[in-house]
UniProtKB/TrEMBL annotation:
InterPro entries: DUF3429. PANTHER family: TRANSMEMBRANE PROTEIN 69 (PTHR15887:SF1). This is DUF3429 domain-containing protein. Keywords: Membrane, Transmembrane, Transmembrane helix. The keyword Transmembrane applies. The chain crosses the membrane at residues 48-67, 76-93, 99-119, 131-148. Pfam families: DUF3429.
């Protein structure tokens, strides 16, 4: 089954803050405009870090929703696993932009493993891993820009 268009478009729209952050790292005039017009929180790695923590928390809610499809011990395990991305974001995104960026990269890669576990158990839609693989790759690439520049 193919990825529903609405899920694909909204998922790609969710990558835009990461892309914006990467572009403002790579292109100084855009960074200067962004800082002057939008403020430092919406420029460079800072927009990525703030939004990344929010997105990992959001994805915890998505996984929690998948866990509701299970029963008994399997549901309990799903609920326990579903809170890990939010906890990771809360505890691991301090310590400066580089450390937080590295933690978010690890967090999104870990989230992909959780996505796969829920999908493998039939709790996520059949197209889920195609969407999550694409979005995770884009997010990790964008987050990595400020780590290598």
């Amino acid at each position: 089954m193919s990825i529903p268009r609405s899920a694909l478009f909204l998922g790609l729209a969710g990558v835009l803050p990461f892309l914006w952050g990467a572009l403002t790292v790579l292109y100084d005039p855009l960074a200067m405009w962004s800082q002057t017009t939008l403020g430092s929180r919406f420029t460079g790695p800072y927009v990525q870090l703030f939004y990344g923590a929010v997105l990992l928390s959001f994805m915890s809610g998505v996984l929690w929703g998948f866990a509701t499809k299970a029963e008994g011990a399997r549901a309990a395990a799903g609920y326990a696993l579903s809170v890990l991305p939010a906890l990771w974001a809360f505890f691991m995104t301090g310590g400066g932009a580089d450390a937080a960026g590295q933690s978010l990269v690890i967090g999104f890669l870990g989230l992909l493993l959780l996505d796969w576990q829920f999908w493998r158990r039939g709790l996520a839609p059949s197209w889920w891993m195609r969407l999550r693989g694409l979005l995770t790759a884009l997010v990790v690439i964008c987050l990595s820009v400020h780590l290598v520049v």
